[in-house]
């Protein structure tokens, strides 16, 4: 009977990845636990805005094998976390291509495009179907804006004018905009505006782990309650967006120092191990993210200390316990879960003997990984 239930659960999870109609309505509400359990908070919260209420004691309790002894080989909880990062593709038809120099660099929701039409000296809206858009038409820059510098200045003024009411969380941090990673940069865009223009955004996520007597453990951070996004949720030891003008490896080193107090001499040993990608539509926001994954084996006696005030505290968990947290709860910031799932594959914690192995592996690059 248990095997029949597991097969049905996996089938439903895989189907939900392939069938956008099964994705929850927007806005999406997280429940902390995949299944409700005694003495653990299950209050629903908005996925990016409201403060969370669980404690490290809650995290430790739910991470232990004895908490749910029969789920050690079940992947359905991992499929759920991938699905959370890949919502809303049924709403793709509501977006117009954003085209620069004949290249599609993003997607703009029809509703957000109304705001851009207030700036005819910056944006144009040609009405043809050359970019295979069901609505016909696309968004582009005014022909007078012919250089990256001109476009960056112009769109920066637009973002500044629209302000927090339209684009919340403005950080004054620029992301490069290109058709794919490593290609020429067409302009730079305020980080908070990236999902409203549907550009590809890149980041670095680092699994910091220690190994003692053959057992690996992951350092996990708990985000500050003052963070504007995902306050109080679990996070990687080190992670950050990839801003304009900095290489991935150098960004990892910078983030290591700021977020965990890891000195450069240790941080430079971080190993690039691949990437994951996802595509998430939520209202007028179209996130097309690629995360470069790094592993760093830390000294056994190393204890991280946050330097920038963005992390409340850190704890060290056996990798198997960290896997249980992801499988059983939604304590983690959503995109961290898929990076740790990737770690579980690469370090042999998820094996071909687990039903759904290849489907889960393939799902870690659901987005356009380019």
Count of DSSP strands: 15
Which structural class is indicated by helix and strand composition? alpha+beta
CATH superfamily: Nucleoside Triphosphate Pyrophosphohydrolase
- The CATH architecture designation is Alpha-Beta Complex
Beta-strand portion reads 15-25%
* Helix/strand order, N-terminal first: HEEHHEEHEEHEEHEEEEHHEEEHHH
* Low-pLDDT stretches: 1-31, 35-50
Describe the overall structure:
Probably mediates the hydrolysis of some nucleoside diphosphate derivatives. The chain has 370 residues and is α+β, with helices and mostly antiparallel strands. The protein has one domain: Nucleoside Triphosphate Pyrophosphohydrolase, CATH 3.90.79.10. The chain has helices at residues 2-18, 56-63, 76-85, 110-116, 148-166, 194-197, 248-260, 264-267, 319-328, 334-346, 357-363, and strands spanning 29-30, 45-46, 95-100, 103-109, 123-124, 139-141, 174-177, 187-190, 200-212, 215-223, 234-236, 238-241, 271-282, 285-297, 311-318. The strands form 4 sheets. Strands 9, 10, 11, 12, 13, 14 and 15 form a 7-stranded mixed β-sheet that branches. A 4-stranded mixed β-sheet has the order 4-3-6-5. A two-stranded antiparallel sheet has the order 1-2. α3 (76-85) crosses α10 (334-346). The radius of gyration is 21 Å and the shape is globular. The model is unreliable at 1-31 and 35-50 (pLDDT under 50).
